[in-house]
Design goal:
The protein is 78% helix and 0% strand. The protein is an all-alpha fold. It has one domain.
């Protein structure tokens, strides 16, 4: 059960990061709104993937010990 939740979390975070690379005009306009910016973010940063992975590892370590 825990492993499935962790895999789902990792998949969600990676999907969110890759979604930031999508640059259709309508989604750019949505990102420029307050709500859209908070939900979708403003852009893609490769450093975000590293941060997500480090965060997932830290959460896993805290959960295990």
């Amino acid at each position: 059960m825990e492993k499935r939740i962790k895999l789902e979390e990792k998949a969600y975070l990676n999907a969110q990061s890759f979604e930031d690379k999508y640059e259709a005009e309508w989604i750019i306009n949505l990102r420029n709104t307050l709500f859209g910016g908070l939900i979708l973010g403003k852009g893609f940063l490769y450093a975000d993937l590293v941060r997500y992975i480090v965060g997932a590892i830290a959460a896993y370590a805290l959960d295990r010990f």
